Amino acid sequence: MMALLLAMPSLAQTGVQFGFKGGLQLTEMSFSSDMLGKNNRAGFCIGPTLKIGTPITGFFVDVAALYDQRDLKVDGRVLKQKSLIIPGNARLGTTVFNTFGVFLCAGPQLSFNVGKDMLQWIDDKGNAKQFALQNTTLSLNIGGGVTIGRHIEATVYYNLPLGKTGDFTWNTLQEQLEEQSWDRAKTTVDAWRLCVAYYF
Length: 200
Prior knowledge:
Elements: H1 2-14, E1 16-31, E2 40-53, E3 59-64, E4 66-74, E5 77-96, E6 100-113, E7 118-122, E8 128-133, E9 136-148, E10 152-161, E11 166-174, E12 179-199
């Protein structure tokens, strides 16, 4: 980011575009425990984006600040995760007939939790359960897209977590020992995201 800020005067000569981006996503949760199954949930994201050209033909950088909302389902309960995500992607592409272009992109994404970060409940058997989200997560975006003219762009990303998304803990009653034991499972969430952007 510091390198981009220092290079901004020269980059401005090659083109900087401001726009808005929105999209839909499909998330899949994975657990470190075999007792918990996977499930797919839908979500969305929306917010401003910036595309910066460079002196290298076909090479761009884009940065966005998006409100991201998704449902996470754990043991039959749903926690609505609300986050501010900041993806930064390097892009390499080409333009055909001056109107249609294709590109590949990849880069890191920071996510900051801005909503409820914990869900607690008692199940039908009287066991206490808790699902807690990380306040900040780091992930990697990999994808590709198409551009139509100077204004419209569509991108498909795969978002791969680089650490755990949260922890799921629950207690079970050991009848023979007449005591409770706590179990824990780490959670990661990856996602497919389809975004459409309009640049002014």
